[in-house]
Design brief:
393 residues; alpha/beta; Diaminopimelate Epimerase, Chain A, domain 1; 2 domains; six-stranded parallel beta sheet; five-stranded mixed beta sheet; 15 helices; 11 strands; binds manganese (II) ion
Length: 393
């Protein structure tokens, strides 16, 4: 966006809010770094503080990285309710738009966002720049245009907002995002950034980790690990990311028990045709919520539903079973997991996953059937070793 237009917008923005107005800044549910950093930037632009212009959200910040951000940068997000919001003279929102809130929102005066697809023309001030990687970029442009000096805290927050919304400038990034990033970079505190990006691990996790590491094995580019009971969801996700870093690993599926659920995080390098989101949907969609993108996906399955389908909730068996499922789900790539004779559902599930397999492997299927005395479509040599001669690597 050109600077003249930003300056024009900025002037209008400042006319919307009068001296004595109490302003609420409202964020999306479970606010993320882009939203929180944009909120404190707006406060600075309006020349206000946290007493006259508090930040609200209907549900609290839950992600550990984001909680670390609020703690390290001392960002307070108060719980919103419609009645409380009604008491404010002006309601501003950043990184979100009025229709998102439905009935919960009494009014809207200022809207700054980068999300597409919402009805516009609701608030007297709107600046919606679809295509921008982050709202923090828009806010940085305002700050530059206003000639505001950006504090270390604000620069750190905005940089982290851009960083997390654009997956470290790798997704949906515009020249504007890179410019804002470059502008903020020398002003930010890297030590804090590092601590936000990698939240501290609870000490108790070390024991879980050491047990899991002993079992870690890469099979045809795939790692499957079940951690047992964990205290935080992000430990499972971090572990999946970690596993993906080992050489020759293309896919990692890591699970853990969290409350009454089995949480499964999947990561891959995006090679080949398999899609992580579609894979978890196919494997676990009937049990709970499952979905995601091509490279990262997640399933949250109630343990009771798992037991109903799989017949057991024992941690050891969960890992065995997940290993079978994921090995079978990799189209033509991962086929060498040992069959689990205890599991009555195996053949049924496999046949569904293997429908697309090529008939050129029939010889081995026959051998396999002879070996086990069962009708099975799984393609494996009698010795259980992989048939694959490499495939696409
Ligand atoms: Mn955003």
């Amino acid at each position: 966006m050109d600077q003249a237009l930003t300056r024009q917008k900025l002037e209008k923005l400042r006319t919307i809010v009068s001296e004595g107005d109490r302003v609420a800044i409202l964020l999306q549910d479970d606010p993320d770094p882009d939203a929180m950093s944009s909120a404190i930037a707006l406060r600075v632009l309006l020349g206000r503080n946290k007493l006259t212009t508090p930040i609200f959200a209907f549900t609290p910040v839950t992600r550990p990285e984001n909680r670390t951000m609020t703690r390290l940068l001392e960002i307070e997000v108060a719980p919103a309710d419609t009645k409380t919001l009604e008491e404010f003279d002006k309601i501003a929102m950043v990184d979100v738009e009025p229709p998102y809130f439905g009935d919960r929102l009494p009014r809207a005066d200022i809207v700054i966002d980068h999300h597409p697809g919402y009805e516009t023309g609701i608030a007297p001030f709107e600046d919606i720049r679809v295509g921008y990687g982050a709202t923090a970029t828009i806010m940085t442009e305002y700050l530059v245009s206003a000639g505001e000096s950006v504090s270390e805290r604000l620069a750190t927050a905005l940089l982290y907002g851009i960083h997390s919304d654009t997956l470290a400038l790798s997704r949906r990034v515009t020249e504007g995002d890179i410019e804002a990033f470059t502008h903020l970079y020398p002003l930010a505190n890297y030590n804090l950034l590092k601590r936000m990006d990698r939240p501290e691990l609870p000490l108790g996790f070390a024991r879980i980790l050491s047990r899991a590491m002993r079992r870690l094995a890469v099979r045809d580019g795939l790692i499957v690990l079940h951690l047992g009971r964990v205290e935080r969801d992000d430990l499972i996700v971090q572990m999946a990311d970690f596993c993906l870093q080992f050489e020759s690993v293309e896919w990692a599926a890591v699970s853990g028990r969290l409350g009454r659920n089995l949480v499964i995080a999947v990561r891959n390098h995006g090679l080949g045709h398999a899609n992580a989101g579609e894979t978890v949907k196919r494997l676990f969609g009937d049990l709970g919520s499952a979905g995601g993108h091509r490279n990262m996906a997640k399933a949250v399955v109630p343990l009771m539903a798992w037991r109903k389908r799989e017949g057991t909730m024992r941690d050891k068996m969960i890992e065995v079973r997940l290993s079978e499922l994921f090995n079978a789900a990799m189209p033509g790539e991962h086929e060498d997991s040992a069959p689990s004779p205890q599991n009555p559902h195996q053949d049924h599930n496999r046949s569904a996953y293997n429908q697309h397999r090529s008939s050129g492997k029939e010889l081995f299927q026959r051998q396999s059937r002879k070996r086990t005395g069962q009708k099975r479509e799984r393609t494996a040599k009698p010795d259980g070793k992989s048939l694959r001669s490499g495939g696409k690597r």
